[in-house]
Specification:
Oligomer: single chain
Order of helices and strands: HHHH
Shape: elongated
Structural class: mainly alpha
Distance between the termini: 44 Å
Largest sheet: none
Number of helices: 4
Helix content: over 70%
């Protein structure tokens, strides 16, 4: 049984390392992040970046502060909605895996992330 656990641990470590190498993301816990909404998130972030660049241009042009604030509100809303998609995807995949494997580190990381996100 111990050898099976060690082999499973090594396999998880290898997969996590491969993910970190491929995506340049440091992980403190051993599961691999697989997300179904990656393309949707990237597209939403690209749109939010475009809107934010437009807000910057509005400020540089000396546009009315009310218009700028309305556009900033739209950017904030887009980012918050993107965060909700990421959170939902994380709950459906990573947290489910963490609960099954009793990965307390992953659960603690999620709690910290939620606290930061909802501030």
């Amino acid at each position: 049984m111990r050898k099976e656990n060690e082999a499973a641990g090594t396999e998880r470590d290898t997969a996590a390392h491969a993910y970190m190498h491929e995506h340049g993301v440091p992980h403190e816990h051993g599961h691999v992040h697989s997300h179904t909404q990656t393309r949707a998130v990237v597209n939403r972030l690209a749109r939010a970046i475009g809107h934010l660049e437009r807000v910057k241009a509005m400020v540089e042009e000396g546009r009315d502060c009310s218009e700028v604030l309305i556009q900033l509100s739209a950017v904030r809303s887009a980012i918050n909605n993107t965060g909700k998609i990421i959170l939902k995807d994380h709950l459906e995949h990573c947290v489910t895996d963490a609960m099954e494997t009793r990965d307390r580190v992953a659960i603690d990381e999620l709690n910290r992330a939620i606290e930061q996100f909802v501030k």
